[in-house]
Amino acid sequence: MIFIKIISLIVQMVLVLTNIVGLPGNIIAIFIPLIWFFAGDITLWGLFILVIIIVMGEIFEFYTGFIIGHAYGIDNKSLILGFIGAILLGIIMAPLFFGVGAVVGSFAGAYMGVFIYECVVYKNFSKASKRAIIVFKSRFMGTMIKFVLGIFMVVLTTIFIF
Fold it and tell me: In whole angstroms, what is the distance from residue 118 CA to residue 123 CA?
């Protein structure tokens, strides 16, 4: 039984690592604690805590860009195009470099979406570049927060099942 628990934790960690390549790794990784909940090794309270951690990670990742962007005066349309650009370029570049292309594509897409919108609307290359860099940094920060929360979820799952 210990072997199965260790393998499941390794699988959960691999799923959390997929956050870095732009996939919703934490959401997929909740299935491991869910299995252990139904097996009786995790309590309902423990499962609830893990779900809250996942929800927090998703909220941080999504809103970090918007909150930081608004703090620097970036409007919603620009941020939405950055979000769309991140998704599209992340998907397009996913097959490159064994999946690492999704990371590059996601961050580059966020940058390009904001940069293109800002250049077209405000016709100021310098301002567009600065705002795109802000969105790039905030996307990176959101992804890292989500990743760290995912690791925390794996640690708690380990504590709960052993």
Answer: 7
Distance separating alpha carbons of residues 114 and 74, to the nearest angstrom: 9
Helix (H, G, I), strand (E, B) or coil at 82: helix
Q: Name the band, by pLDDT with cuts 50, 70 and 90, for residue 161.
A: very high
In tens, the pLDDT along 81-112 reads 888 888 888 888 878 776 678 888 888 998 99
Task: Return the ∠ at Cα 61 (arms to 88 and 121), rounded to 5°.
Answer: 55
List the alpha helices (DSSP H) in 42-124. 44-71, 76-93, 100-122
Largest CA distance in the chain: 63
Sign of the four-CA dihedral 49, 50, 52, 56 = positive
